[in-house]
TrEMBL record:
Name of one Pfam family that matches: RmlD_sub_bind
Protein name in UniProt: dTDP-4-dehydrorhamnose reductase
Pathway: Carbohydrate biosynthesis; dTDP-L-rhamnose biosynthesis
This protein's UniProt keywords: NADP, Oxidoreductase
Listed EC numbers: 1.1.1.133
Record field: catalytic activity: dTDP-beta-L-rhamnose + NADP(+) = dTDP-4-dehydro-beta-L-rhamnose + NADPH + H(+)
Family designation: Belongs to the dTDP-4-dehydrorhamnose reductase family.
Gene: rfbD
Functional summary from the UniProt entry: Catalyzes the reduction of dTDP-6-deoxy-L-lyxo-4-hexulose to yield dTDP-L-rhamnose.
Co-factor requirement: Mg(2+)
Cofactor note: Binds 1 Mg(2+) ion per monomer.
Database matches in PANTHER family: DTDP-4-DEHYDRORHAMNOSE REDUCTASE, METHIONINE ADENOSYLTRANSFERASE 2 SUBUNIT BETA
Length: 299
């Protein structure tokens, strides 16, 4: 750790759903350097440009790195595979190289979309990934770049992220409930809605223990599945949002095949979080519980 005892935490992607929550949660762990594409709250970085990533590390000399930035436009990635790979794969490989050279911990997020969804049991970390779309392929490349490096890294695979800002299903549904009296929602894809704040809080708790020396990165580094508990379909998730928001909109089931999105999505991508809960001794609340808390925040 540099000069003082306060670790310098380089947060990359501080404007995103998870990044924005991390800005607040990580403030109890150390000095947060909030890097983003726009550079509004700290240094600017464009992950599609390798030089920009190197410059960020040179300029900030971090003690810890948390990467919440990603190319997350799942459908658009089908027509922009090089850009998605540059941001989700190549840039992460550079972070891995720079973190390995400094011997500093890295936290990175990945996705349930690395799996094909061709199963009916919650996926474990050692299940074989088989992405159905470009986004999933590029996120898998990022995971592998970190795992194949000497960087002490925690990779948190999560799913169906929503929160009080950004592009997400919760905010889209609430807008549509105001605009329409009837909506069709996919009911043949199953997963676990996960509040961005939950991800930020567990990340901060774990990093606090790491920087305090209570948790040995050499022992815990690796891949973990982190979502809320439970599972649901997009339709049931929409129903829960509607009911908890006192909205009045008729929801009708639609099959994924009828929705015609450019990117294929896994039909079943529930993640088994037992490795995470056992290793870190943390409880992950039921998705409905987190949803209610998030909605209370929106009131
Ligand atoms: N959202 C989900 O449902 C979901 C599910 C599973 C896993 N994840 C993973 O969770 C992590 C956080 O996702 P999120 O939902 O918080 O995503 P998000 O809201 O889309 O945030 C991603 C951030 O990355 C930034 N970014 C995009 N391109 C960039 C570039 N070239 N250089 C620098 N920054 C760039 C975006 O900036 P702009 O907004 O300015 O483009 C945005 O602030 C990601 O690793 C994602 O893959 C998300």
């Amino acid at each position: 750790m540099t000069n003082s005892n306060v670790p310098r935490i380089l947060l990359i992607g501080s404007d995103g759903q998870v990044g924005w929550e991390l800005r607040r949660s990580l403030a109890t762990v150390g000095q947060v350097i909030a890097a983003s594409l726009t550079g509004q709250e700290g240094p600017a970085v464009d992950l599609s440009q390798p030089d920009s990533v190197h410059q960020l590390f040179d300029a900030t000399a971090p003690d810890v790195v948390v990467n919440a930035a990603a190319y997350t436009a799942v459908d658009r990635a089908e027509t922009e595979p090089e850009l998605a790979l540059a941001i989700n794969g190549t840039a992460v490989a550079i972070m891995a190289e720079r973190a390995a050279a400094r011997g500093i911990p890295v936290v990175h997020y990945s996705t349930d979309f690395v799996f094909s969804g061709d199963t009916d049991h919650p996926y474990r970390e050692d299940d074989e990934p088989q992405p159905l779309n470009v986004y999933g392929q590029t996120k898998l490349a990022g995971e592998r770049a970190l795992l194949d490096s000497d960087a002490p890294a925690l990779i948190f695979r999560t799913a169906w992220v929503y929160g009080v800002r950004g592009n997400n299903f919760l905010l889209t549904m609430r807008r549509l409930f105001r605009e329409q009296s009837e909506l069709r929602v996919v009911n043949d894809q199953f997963g676990t809605p996960t509040w961005s704040r939950l991800l930020a809080e567990v990340t901060a708790q774990i990093l606090y223990r790491v920087v305090q020396g209570e948790l040995d990165m050499a022992r815990v580094q690796g891949l973990y599945h982190v979502t809320s508990a439970g599972a649901t379909s997009w339709l049931s998730f929409a129903e829960a949002i509607r009911d908890l928001s006192d909205a009045d909109c008729r929801l009708l089931p639609i099959a994924s095949a009828d929705y015609q999105a450019p990117a294929r999505r896994p039909a079943y991508s529930v993640l088994d979080t037992s490795r995470f809960r056992t290793t870190f001794g943390l409880t992950l609340p039921d998705w409905r519980h987190s949803l209610a808390l998030c909605l209370a925040d929106l009131r």
